[in-house]
Amino acid sequence: MENNAERVHCLIIGSGPAGYTAAIYAARANLKPVLYQGIQPGGQLTITTEVENYPGYPDGIQGPEMMEHFEKQAARMGADIRYGLATKVDFMEAPYKVWIDEEKLILADTIIVSTGASAKWLGIESEQRLNGYGVSACAVCDGFFFKGKEVAIVGAGDTAAEEALYLSKLCTKVHMLVRRDQMRASKIMQDRVLKSPNIQVYWNSSTDEVLGETKVEGVRIRNHKTDELSEIPVSAFFVAIGHQPNSDIFKGWLEMDESGYIITIPGTSRTNIEGVFAAGDIQDKNYRQAVTAAGSGCMAALDAERYLMVKGEL
Questions:
Q1: Which residues of the chain fall short of a pLDDT of 50?
Q2: 189 with 107: CB under 8 angstroms?
């Protein structure tokens, strides 16, 4: 199989802001990067509508269009951008082995992992249908569009509490749905939520349906104790039940935390394997913004360039 292998200086796995930014920097440094776009070319931003918080776009921009700009810029710099999904890796020794779509073998001197994380969803039809039309998995990204309106948020951890508090500063009322009779969030976050006059917590409650044909108009909830259904009129529905890092194929090779996020050496993009770097949401569960992902993509490309220089391969 190795006879048909392709050797590359720098392989980038994933194509969100982190992957494309890494490709721009790596291409300009003459690393001749090859980028595989993965299962969702453009990453999470392709399921976002308006992006208003990325610098340089004073009038805002649609997420998919922004990712198109990133891709075009990386291609113009000379990055080799390809369709394909990394399905297996072997980091035993350099050059590292990565299989694309289970058949093509790439041998890479350096690898930048930017496979991102996927928001966890409730799995109801109306949630997917109205995604981008009032349903969102990122209150910090989309809360602003619902300023002065009533919104609902589902979740019970620190992220959900943080996002509920963020929304409470923008929205007239935040209806927070919690599955059990208590939250998982830290005590201090729970206290803040419960002390906020415009956050109403619904205990033992789950989402039965998001209401609305073309945009969110309300949410129907079910109380587990009474089995009662009730409807709340809201303009937006935020899902804050966590993210799943797309790191399965790297298990056993790269060091991860208990949730599966890749651990990088603080202040760098370096992983526990030299020559393998991680950027974007795959290693960042705190900020998860396009601009921070892009910044870490830049770091990864610079780290890869320095690594190759030290090894005398550039």
A1: 1
A2: no
Clarify whether residues 57 and 138 are in a common domain: no
Asked about 171 being catalytic, the answer comes back as: no
Both 221 and 279 in a single domain?
no
Alpha helices of 156-289 — where are they, by DSSP H? 158-168, 187-195
CB-CB neighbours of 252 under 10 Å: 8
Verify whether residue 138 is a known catalytic residue: yes
User: Of 10, 109, 141, 284, which is the active-site residue?
Assistant: 141
**Buried b / exposed e across 100-129, counting CB within 10 Å, b at 16+?**
beeebbbbbbbbbbbbbbbbeeeeeebbee
Catalytic residue list contains 10: no
**Domain with 261 in it: what CATH number?**
3.50.50.60
The residue annotated as part of the active site, out of 59, 90, 109, 138, is: 138
Which residue is it, tokens 């789950």? Answer: 206
> Which amino acid, 197?
P
Distances (CA, A) of 7 to 30, 260, 301: 15, 29, 18
What integer pLDDT is reported at residue 52 of this predicted model? 85
* Cβ-Cβ contacts under 8 Å for 221 (sequence gap 6 or more): 177, 202, 205, 206, 207, 208, 229, 230, 231, 232
* Residue 16 near residue 281, CB atoms below 8 Å: yes
Is-contact 210 135, C-beta < 8 A? yes
What is the structure's pLDDT at 254? 98
Contacts 24+ apart (CB under 8 A), 260-268: 261/117, 261/285, 262/113, 268/299, 268/303
Q: Which two tokens stand for residue 36?
A: 């595989």
Name the residue range of residue 127's domain.
121-239
